[in-house]
Amino acid sequence: MSHHLLTVDSLNRESVDYLLRVAARMEPIAQRRQVTRVLEGAVLGNLFFEASTRTRVSFNAAFCRLGGSVCDTTGFTFSSMAKGESLYDTSRVMSGYCDAIVMRHPDQGSVAEFAAATNVPVINGGDGPGEHPSQALLDLYTIDKEFQRLGKSLTGAHILLTGDLKYGRTVHSLIKLLSLYDPLRITLVSPPGLEMPSKLIDLVASRGHRIEQCDSLANDFADLDVVYTTRIQKERFTDEMNESFQGLSDDFMVNRDFLDQRCSQSTIVMHPLPRDSRPGANDLNVDLNGDPRLAIFRQTDNGIPMRMAIFATLLKVDELIEQELRPVRWYVPTQTGTLDR
Ligand code: NCD
């Protein structure tokens, strides 16, 4: 694993399995049963030039739960980039202040350009339609945990990815990460014009996976183990696409009927979130809230141990965690959300 995390291309099966194991060791801290101070004195720079709730806050919380502190800046308006500062200068400046940097930026390749100017570990928190490696790692960690609970194996699993597969960076990173594992069956369902880039399809096929594409959810999909839905990334559309795209039709909606008719009791439903809950968006339906197959909030919770694992590994304190653990002293509810099962 390189000293940055910019793309899942820098990971292999061994380094991914290692991160999954480190994340599992972080669970007592993430679940607020124990505390550690292994990153005491360390400072994280969290630079977000695009909208974010969970990625920004969970990277921040993960660093704090390891005992570090966080400095952050959000949006171009309040950063010196609004005065024309280059990525190179910003990177060099931030490296003098921080021990690790997470950056999200609307341009593909920008986080790699930023990372090229520093020896401080940089994590790509999403670069336009490019990649989102930490999300893919927490998604894989979620699949692994859910499959362990359900007594399933990843080998031969059937995974359906749907929604905006062209601009959705989470699915770009996830499909590459999944392709490191034993042969899978992957079905891609997207509206015309929003298909997965063909170079990613070719890569996955060349690694021996069975990959099929279709343009509607109204098909019979045998034995689905995971349904991974994504939001339409309208903010990345060209003006021409914005004019021609009428919105996601309701045949793309993953809801209770879809699950009851086309999935089994052991299918899990994932989404990187945010889901667009506005009327007519036809994103993942809220009628599944409270259904145990809906794994989206277990998935967001898993962002903390996985991001802690990424920091601990990049900052080389992964071996020190167990030596540092102490019990928590504050009140923690036994169940985080009111509908959790
Ligand atoms: C995603 C992103 O920003 O790529 N969100 C996230 O980080 N969990 C997905 C999206 O915005 O649709």
UniProtKB/TrEMBL annotation:
Its EC number is 2.1.3.2. It catalyses: carbamoyl phosphate + L-aspartate = N-carbamoyl-L-aspartate + phosphate + H(+). Keywords: Pyrimidine biosynthesis, Transferase. The keyword Transferase applies. It is an enzyme of class 2 (transferase). Pathway: Pyrimidine metabolism; UMP biosynthesis via de novo pathway; (S)-dihydroorotate from bicarbonate: step 2/3. Residues 4-144 form the Aspartate/ornithine carbamoyltransferase carbamoyl-P binding domain. It holds the Pfam family OTCace. The keyword Signal does not apply. GO terms for cellular component: cytosol. One of its GO terms (molecular function) is amino acid binding. GO terms for biological process: 'de novo' pyrimidine nucleobase biosynthetic process; 'de novo' UMP biosynthetic process; amino acid metabolic process. Residues 156-313 form the Aspartate/ornithine carbamoyltransferase Asp/Orn-binding domain. Catalyzes the condensation of carbamoyl phosphate and aspartate to form carbamoyl aspartate and inorganic phosphate, the committed step in the de novo pyrimidine nucleotide biosynthesis pathway. Belongs to the aspartate/ornithine carbamoyltransferase superfamily. ATCase family. This is Aspartate carbamoyltransferase.
